[in-house]
Write a structure and sequence with these properties.
The chain is an alpha/beta fold. It has helices at residues 50-65, 78-86, 100-109, 131-136, 175-181, 194-206, 261-266, 268-276, 281-292, 298-308, 310-313, and strands at 41-46, 70-75, 92-96, 113-130, 162-166, 186-190, 212-217, 227-230, 252-260. The protein contains eleven helices and nine strands.
């Protein structure tokens, strides 16, 4: 259920870790390799958060080094990526957090996009506080008690209210509606990007300051900054159907892959490989940590993971 906005690139071997989101949508800048007649090329859509980059890095490495394809990557906001996928500008989207409207339009009605199967990773969005704060104030992890602690979370950006830190305005988030509908004395403040949000959280944690943030798993930062989820009203099917009336927690979402329908039928070994690509949260976080924390290039991180997990990826090629 996340949306990311990033700038389009056409880099074959360098999948750079982005430092921010919110750039102009470059969906119309199609890959020069997408749909090339007779060429062994694959174009992958890549989102700005590091977990999605990890998927693409490993898929790209194996497509190039094991199957002999040329791989192009296009970075684009996740919702416009459905348009690009439908039109054949990209061949595959490897991590979707749930977009029922797009699924209905492109998969069920137009049939220009085909399901690519589950990624193997379950995503979840929630509100989190640092664990050191939860240990000091155990009742802070229940949303009903948040107003009691609003003063702790005040910032210049939130004014007289407590700050609920979100990432980019382009993310799919229910937080403004939740604050309003739960009648909480908080202001949603956008950091601007995943990278900016991480920088703020790491600085708060270094100084042992309180913070309340929109965050999600899987995410490598949990290993560096332990966080505890705040319990919101339980999620029930349909409780988030009306974006203006949402007053419940976010769901747990098995992350999905999608392929351009023509590519799914005619993409040969590449399409078959991407359908079989399925790994665990631990696998994804292992690569994400190498990219984001150890500052390895995505290609080097992918190679290191591939070298030590042959029993996992070998079956994707069969």
């Amino acid at each position: 259920m996340r949306v990311r906005t990033t700038a389009a690139i056409a880099a074959v071997s360098s999948l750079a870790l982005l430092t921010g989101c919110g750039a102009a949508d470059m969906t119309k800048q199609a890959s020069p390799f997408a749909g090339a007649q007779g060429a062994r090329t694959v174009t992958l859509s890549v989102q700005s958060w590091v977990g999605a980059q990890s998927n693409v890095a490993v898929a790209q490495y194996l497509l190039e080094h094991e199957l002999g394809y040329r791989v192009d990557t296009v970075q684009v906001d996740e919702v416009p990526a459905w348009d690009a996928l439908s039109q054949g500008r990209v061949d595959a989207l490897l991590e979707d957090w749930g977009h029922p409207e797009q699924e209905q339009r492109y998969v069920k009605d137009k049939r220009t996009i085909a399901p690519g199967g589950e990624l193997g990773v379950t995503g979840h969005i929630g509100w989190f506080v640092p664990t050191y704060l939860a240990e000091q104030h155990p009742d802070i992890t229940n949303w009903k008690n948040l107003d009691k602690y609003a003063d702790l979370f005040r910032t210049p950006e939130s004014g007289s209210k407590g700050q609920l830190m979100d990432g980019s305005p382009s993310y799919v988030t229910n937080d403004k509606a939740l604050v309003k509908n739960l009648k909480l004395d908080y202001q949603v403040v956008f950091a601007g990007s995943e990278a900016a949000q991480i920088t703020q959280m790491k600085q708060f944690a270094k100084e042992k300051k309180p913070f309340l943030t929109y965050w999600y798993s899987p995410q490598w930062l949990f290993e560096k900054v332990p966080m505890t989820e705040v319990k919101l009203p339980p999620y029930k099917e349909g409780c988030d159907a009306d974006p203006e009336k949402v007053a419940c927690a976010y769901p747990h979402t098995p992350l999905q892959k999608y392929l351009n329908a023509d590519f799914a039928k005619k993409g040969g070994k590449a399409a078959a490989f991407l359908k079989k690509f399925r790994w665990t949260t631990e696998d994804q976080n292992e690569v994400s940590l190498m990219i984001a924390d150890k500052k390895m290039s995505p290609e080097d991180a992918a190679k290191k993971w591939v070298d030590s997990h042959e029993s996992t990826w070998r079956k994707w090629l069969s």
